[in-house]
Amino acid sequence: MAPFVQDTAARPKTGSDADAFLRTLYSQHSPALRAHAQRMLHDPQLAEDVVQETMLRAWRKLDTLDTADSIGGWLIRVAHNIAIDRIRARRARPTEVDESATDAGAWSVTDHAERTVDSIYVARALQALSPSHRAVLQQVYTAAAPKPPPSSASPSAPSNPASTTHSATYARQSRPARPAEPPPPSEQRAKTPQPI
Prior knowledge:
Helix 1 crosses helix 3, helix 2 crosses helix 3 and helix 6 crosses helix 7. With 196 residues, the protein is mostly helical. The protein has a domain of 74 residues: RNA polymerase sigma factor, region 2, helix turn helix motif (Rna Polymerase Sigma Factor, Chain: A). The protein contains eight helices and no strands. The protein starts with 15 loop residues before the first helix and ends in a 5-residue tail after the last helix. The longest helix has 26 residues. It is rod-shaped and about 110 Å long.
């Protein structure tokens, strides 16, 4: 353990005595300095920086410190002033922004390449279909389906409007399949062939 240093003790000027004196000074006063700085800054890392800066200033002023003054009081005053300087510097600077927390999507340009490639594939797939199948898909997926000319109307083309086809498709998908019910007995007799 380091020897106790009286505040009124003579201060060594240079050499290994000065190093020993500073080590003793640090071991005795750093807990109080750190606590004072942490109360002011609310950050243990900044408080440790203030203690280190205070000890550096004590080392620089080692030869000019007055022996009658209290070293502890001088160190607390220096630490207090350094902490106030840090607070002022923090207020003067704009707040730092964590780049990882920013929304990168807000700053990027939308790439339409995938959408374009998908539309090309869909167009090629539609060209491979027969005209009647294309007409069904156009009625199901678009509101403005082209009407075939009267002369080329095929019997396989649906005659329902797109909204009816869409509603029927949706109704089939949304409701569960029902088991087939047998017809009532009166209808069964009517369908059975009568002997002649």
